[in-house]
Design brief:
The protein is mainly alpha-helical and 185 residues long. The chain has seven helices and two strands; from the N terminus they run ααααβααβα. The protein has a two-stranded antiparallel ribbon with strand order 1-2. Helix 3 (77-94) packs antiparallel against helix 4 (100-126). The longest helix has 43 residues, at 2-44. The chain starts with a helix and ends with a helix. 4% of the residues are buried.
């Protein structure tokens, strides 16, 4: 059993390194793209709305990676925001060549993505979630938290078998705290 846990930790660590390398490549590529876009704007001596929207897309990508590093979670809303801005940019660039049905399709897609953001935000505000800070999944599994139950969080926090994990490492947010946090965003 100990060999299996050690092997799982090694595989998990290797996957984390690959994941961090991939995120680093994404950030570097995004920064290079921002630089190239700035060069294009300087060369043509003007800034169009499509250029600004493209810069927003780049900033959203960087923000998404930053949130992943800070909170160790991928916020699902950010890719949706990026898709909405990309569709808006697409319409701005090529609206003159679109047929009416194509504009309707894109408009309905933007509306559907907006509805998806509302559903995700509603879920975050109404359903509490557990924020596991400063501890990786493998460390929590070692602390006998495999079957974490929302209804039994307090007893799980007090019965931790790992002395390195303290009650302050686990946080359960209530509906009102979730709601307050999302209002700030």
């Amino acid at each position: 059993m100990a060999k299996t846990n050690a092997k799982n930790r090694n595989v998990n660590r290797a996957l984390q390194y690959i994941e961090h390398f991939g995120l680093l490549v994404i950030v570097i590529a995004t920064v290079i793209a921002v630089g190239q876009e700035i060069m294009v704007m300087v060369d043509k001596s003007r800034v169009d709305l499509s250029d600004i929207l493209l810069m927003f897309i780049y900033l959203e990508i960087i923000a998404m990676v930053q949130i992943y590093y800070e909170e160790n979670r991928l916020p699902i809303r950010y890719p949706i925001y990026i898709a909405i801005v990309a569709l808006a940019r697409y319409v701005i660039l090529d609206a003159k060549s679109f047929e009416a049905w194509r504009l309707l399709e894109i408009g309905l897609t933007i509306l559907l993505l907006t509805f998806a953001v509302l559903v995700v935000r509603y879920g975050h505000m109404t359903l509490p979630y557990i924020n596991l800070r400063r501890k990786s999944l493998s460390e929590l599994e070692d602390a006998d938290l495999k079957a974490f139950d929302l209804g039994n969080v307090e007893s799980k926090k007090s019965n931790l078998s790992d002395p390195d994990i303290k009650n302050s490492d686990l946080e359960v947010r209530s509906d009102s705290e979730n709601s307050e946090q999302h209002k700030q965003i």
